[in-house]
Amino acid sequence: MEFFDCISLAKAQTLINNVLPECTTAVEETELIEALGRIVAEDIAAADHLPPFNRSTVDGYAVLSRDTFSAGEGAPVMLDIIGEVFMGQSADYTIVSGQAVIVPTGGMLPAGADGVVMLEHAEQSDQETLLVAKPIAPGENMVAKGEDIKPGTVFVAAGTRLTAAEIGALAACGIARVKVRRRLTVGIISTGDEVVDVIAVPENGQVRDINSYTLAAMLTAADCQVTRYGITKDNYADLLAAIGKAAGENQLVLVSGGSSVGARDHTVQVIEELGRNKVIFHGLAVRPGKPTIFGLIDHVPVFGLPGHPVAAMTICQMVVMPLVSRLQGSGSCKAGWRIPARLTRNCASAPGRDDFLRVKLIWQAGEYRAEPVLGKSGLISVMTQADGVVHVPADSSGLYAGDVVLVEVMREA
Ligand SMILES: Nc1nc2c(c(=O)[nH]1)N[C@H]1C(S)=C(S)[C@@H](COP(=O)(O)OP(=O)(O)OC[C@H]3O[C@@H](n4cnc5c(N)ncnc54)[C@H](O)[C@@H]3O)O[C@H]1N2
Ligand code: MOO
C-alpha cells in the first residue's frame, strides 16, 4: 500500500492561496432586510449627513450654551421662551442670546442653539420665562448634523458581512437595496458503504451520515448555498459520477470519507481523473485531519475531508472556511472569532505537526478558561461539548496549564 506524503499546514495554505487567490463570485442586488449575513460587494458611502439636522437627545429647552455658564441652583439664568418645536417638524426659529425654545427628545434644534437644557434642570416661571438652574456645555444633550455619518464617508466597506448594525445604518441612510456577492454554491458528498441516511435504522456495521449534515450546517451558516448530493458507495464509478456532477454544478465541492489510503478510498484517484492530475495535496501534517485532499476539477476546488466527524468539522473550519471567505470576497471568516482564554491543563503536541485542540470555554473569575475536550476523532459528542479550537503550531511541543491561548470559536451562540 502506498502512503501519502504529508505537507505542513502553512504550505497547504500557500498552495490553496496560489491556485485560488481572489474572489470570483458574481454580484447581485438584494432587498435590505434580505441582506443580513450577506457580503457587501462594494464600498457604501453616505450621500447626506446623518442626522440631516441638529437634534435634541432629551426633552428640554434649546439654548445658546454660553447663556447658561453662570447658572446655579441659587442663581438661575433667566431666558425668554420664544416658541416650541414639535416632533417631526421643522424648527422654523433662529435663537439669539437670551432666548430658548421648547424641544422634545429627537426634535430638531432651532438655528443658533448649540445645546439643550433638560426639563428637570429648568423651571418655567410663566409661559414665556425660563429659569435655568444648571449650566450646559456646548453640544450637550444634542446630536449635531452629520455627527453619526458624514456625506462621502464609507460606512460599510466592501467585504463586510452584514449584521443587524449595518442593516440599521443602511436604513438610516435610505439605502433600500444592497449589492452583495452571490451565495457561494457548495456541493457536499458523503461516501462509505457503511454510511446510511438519517432516516435509516443502521444495521450492524452501519452508521448514520453525520458529515454531510455538519458540513452543510457549517457552510449554510457561512452564507453558502449548499446542495447535498447524498451518500455514495465506496465504488469508483459511483464516486466519479457524483463528484463530476457536483463539480459541474458548484463553485466548491466537499467530499467526506474515502480520503485515506485503504483499498476503498477512491476520492484521490477520482479527483485526479476528473481534474486531469490536479490533485494539489494529499496529506497534511495536522491532527486531526491528516488524510485531507485538495484538488481542482476545471478550476473548481474539491476537498476530500477525513471521514471521522471531528476531523471533517475541524478541517472544514481551519482549512476550508478561510478559502470560503476569500471566494465570497469577505475579509472576515464567518465563524472565525478568536478569543483569548487560559488553558486549564497541559496539552502535549508532537513538533512538526499542527494540532487542533478542541476546548470548552468556561467563564471564571473574570476571564475565559479553555478546558480541553478529550475524546477520539470519531465521536461527534466531542464537537457538541466543544466551543472552539486552539491551534497548536507545528513548532510547539505543547501548551501548559495557565498559558493564554487563542480559541477559534466554532459555535454560533
Ligand atoms: N492505517 C491507517 N488507517 C487510518 C489512517 C492512517 O493514517 N493509517 N488515518 C486515520 C485517520 S486520521 C482518519 S481521519 C481516517 C480517515 O479515513 P477516510 O477519510 O478514508 O474515511 P473513511 O475510512 O471512509 O471513514 C473513517 C471513519 O469515519 C466514518 N465516517 C465516514 N463518513 C462518515 C459520515 N458521513 N458520517 C459519519 N461517519 C462517517 C467511517 O464510518 C469511519 O469510522 O482514517 C484513519 N485510518
Ligand atoms: O483525521 Mo484523523 O481523525 O486525524 O484522526
TrEMBL record:
The keyword Metal-binding applies. This is Molybdopterin molybdenumtransferase. It comes from Sporomusa sphaeroides DSM 2875. Residues 187-326 form the MoaB/Mog domain. Belongs to the MoeA family. Keywords: Magnesium, Metal-binding, Molybdenum, Molybdenum cofactor biosynthesis, Transferase. One of its GO terms (molecular function) is molybdopterin molybdotransferase activity. Signal peptide: none annotated. The keyword Membrane does not apply. It comes from the Bacteria. It holds the Pfam family MoeA_C. Pathway: Cofactor biosynthesis; molybdopterin biosynthesis. Catalyzes the insertion of molybdate into adenylated molybdopterin with the concomitant release of AMP. May be involved in the biosynthesis of molybdopterin. InterPro entries: MoaB/Mog-like_dom_sf, MoaB/Mog_dom, MoCF_biosynth_CS, MoeA-like, MoeA_C_domain_IV, MoeA_C_domain_IV_sf, MoeA_linker/N, MoeA_linker/N_sf. Gene3D superfamilies: MoaB/Mog-like domain (3.40.980.10), MoeA, C-terminal, domain IV (2.40.340.10), Molybdopterin biosynthesis moea protein, domain 2 (3.90.105.10), Molybdopterin biosynthesis moea protein, domain 3 (2.170.190.11). It catalyses: adenylyl-molybdopterin + molybdate = Mo-molybdopterin + AMP + H(+). Its EC number is 2.10.1.1. Its cofactor is Mg(2+).
